[in-house]
Amino acid sequence: MASLKKRNGNYSIVFITHVDGKRIQKNFSLGTRRKQIAEQKKNHYEKLYESGELNPFEPGWNLKEFEQRQIDIEGAGDRSLYLSDLKEEFLESK
Predict the structure, then answer these.
(1) pLDDT at residue number 68
(2) Predicted confidence (pLDDT) at residue 76 exceeds the cutoff of 80
(3) C-beta of residue 30 within 8 angstroms of C-beta of residue 41
(4) Is 61 helix (H, G, I), strand (E, B) or coil?
(5) How far lies 73's CA from each of 11, 66, 67, 68, 87, in Å?
(6) Is the confidence at residue 15, as pLDDT, over 70?
(7) CA angle in degrees (0–180, nearest 5) for 71-77-82
(8) CA distance 86 to 11
(9) What is the three-class DSSP state of 46?
């Protein structure tokens, strides 16, 4: 389960779980002051958490690093398409 928290104008996402009867809570800054963007991010990360694609309770897990890896993965897909187009052009010119 995830919820939003606003502190000093910035939104954070709060993940909550229970382990051995104890409540564990993890907070991560979403880097936005806009509620609509915070809600969108919360819904996205909550779905990923529920599907098991991310686990904010792992030691050392960081939301900003997770976002950067997602950007890198998406960018790598674009580059590979671009490189394959260049490869085809090169082979056609030979």
Answers:
(1) 86
(2) no
(3) yes
(4) coil
(5) 26, 11, 10, 9, 21
(6) yes
(7) 125
(8) 43
(9) helix
